[in-house]
Specification:
The complex is a heterodimer. Chain A is about 0% helix and about 55% strand. Chain A is mainly beta. In chain B, strands 2, 4, 5, 6, 9, 10 and 11 form a seven-stranded mixed sheet that branches. In chain B, strand 9 and strand 10 form a beta hairpin. The chains are: A mainly beta, B mainly beta.
């Protein structure tokens, strides 16, 4: 069965510092991978997705993620964090088992300190 | 011009009641979903509809009944509410062959 692990429940980063959020997945076939952000009281917004091709994917708000098949990872990065990036971040794998569904990780809460 | 809108945003109700949550998308998407987010923020798919046809039903109690009157709407009706149903319910949509790219703002359901 498909699964996603986000090992960090909370991460605190200073404003202006770089960020990396970890995501590991388990899926037998080539995965479709996604990162979503959820601001407090809001729905989820798609940051970026990986289907195939270039393993470094650019997303919105200055985020990028790198797919590493050998490590079953899809880590999210940002070179310089802004206070407005404080939110919950979810990694997800798309399971195409005759129909499409997303399997989410448990999320990482990003706190940004001044 | 909200893409995926849900009503109500908050719902507080007593155990045993029946309630509905409505969802509408104006993106012209063919596929709509209901996801449940529990108190630990874990998100899990409940249902998926494609062009008004149910295609995913993820071991959800039959007290939950989705209804799609047209491809722009997917409502969720819950009978005999239980304390464990308290959660945030998200509606989402995607174009056919896509994934849940657009989420609504969520409905926080509290059962007391």
């Amino acid at each position: 069965a498909q699964s996603v692990t986000q090992p960090d429940i909370h991460i605190t980063v200073s404003e202006g510092a770089s960020l990396e959020l970890r995501c590991n997945y388990s899926y037998g076939a080539t995965p479709y991978l996604f990162w979503y952000v959820q601001s407090p009281g809001q729905g989820l917004q798609l940051l970026l997705k990986y289907f195939s091709g270039d393993t470094l994917v650019q997303g919105i708000k200055g985020f990028e993620a790198e797919f590493k098949r050998s490590q079953s990872s899809f880590n999210l990065r940002k070179p310089s964090v802004h206070w407005s990036d404080a939110a919950e971040y979810f990694c997800a794998v798309g399971a195409n088992t005759g129909f499409q569904k997303l399997v989410f990780g448990t999320g990482t809460r990003l706190l940004v300190s001044p | 011009d909200t893409a995926v809108s849900q009503t109500p945003k908050y719902l507080v109700t007593q155990m045993g009641n029946d309630k509905s949550i409505k969802c509408e998308q104006n993106l012209g998407h063919d596929t709509m979903y209901w996801y449940k987010q529990d108190s630990k923020k874990f998100l899990k798919i409940m249902f998926s509809y494609n062009n008004k046809e149910l295609i995913i039903n993820e071991t959800v109690p039959n007290r939950f009944s989705p209804k799609s009157p047209d491809k722009a709407h997917l409502n969720l009706h819950i009978n005999s509410l239980e304390l464990g149903d308290s959660a945030v319910y998200f509606c989402a949509s995607s174009p056919q062959g896509g994934w849940a790219a657009f989420f609504g703002q969520g409905t926080r359901l509290t059962v007391v």
